[in-house]
Amino acid sequence: MSDISVHTTASTPTGKPIVVFDLDGTLVDTAPDLLDSLNHCLIAGGLTPADPAALRKFVGSGAKVMIERAYQAQNKHLSDEQMQKLFKLFMEHYNGNMPGSSAFYPGVLACLDALKQAGYILAVCTNKFEVSAKKLLEGLGEAQRFAVICGQDTFPYRKPDPRHLTDTIKLAGGNPLQAVMVGDSRADIDAAKAAGIPVIAVDFGYTDLHVSHFEPSRIISHFNALTTDMVAELMSAAKQAAE
Fold this sequence. Notes:
Blueprint: E1 16-21, E2 28-29, H1 31-44, H2 52-55, H3 63-73, H4 80-96, E3 103-104, H5 108-117, E4 121-125, H6 130-139, E5 148-150, H7 162-172, E6 174-183, H8 186-195, E7 199-202, E8 218-220, H9 228-242
Parallel strand pairs: 1-4, 1-6, 4-5, 6-7, 7-8
Antiparallel strand pairs: 2-3
Helix pairs in contact: 1-3, 1-4, 3-4, 7-8
């Protein structure tokens, strides 16, 4: 976090209340398809398929990290040229088979319905490429729920840089002083903290350490626990702290 500057929200107080979600490991369990694409690459590279249990915790770190971990696990050297070829193959396979077996976590759609009915804007801020994020949500039939779907290439920066989150909020027409982030990783939590925005962490996502290590505002184990009262309480506390 030492290279990430803190961006306060005090200069942009306009807009509507908003809840911003991470995607992989937060709204949608994408691990089965990401691991399928990884194994497609490994087989093409002459390696044996990866152990899903060993690599699942690295799913949220991006395709290149998964490929690197898989090669390390089999004590195989991976050159930069090989990485570029495998990454391209991975993305072609993944995007070509979307949404595959990916599915929303239990309670997600009911939670989104409740937040929408309560007047909150909904948005996605993910380190997935924007085209992939949009294609996934479109394939699942739910892209229209979100005012914006911003990926790692939407802006010149990405989480944990707080500007990825604050610019997503601005693009969606939201108010950074009435915002909550929901995510599953350190990148989500660090981005929200640096932006001065409360963050709810799910404890069933993709991270090598339990989210409690990163001290989010709240931790939930099911989307049934993410209530409009919780969101309103966090927004009220953040607003009071900013005044």
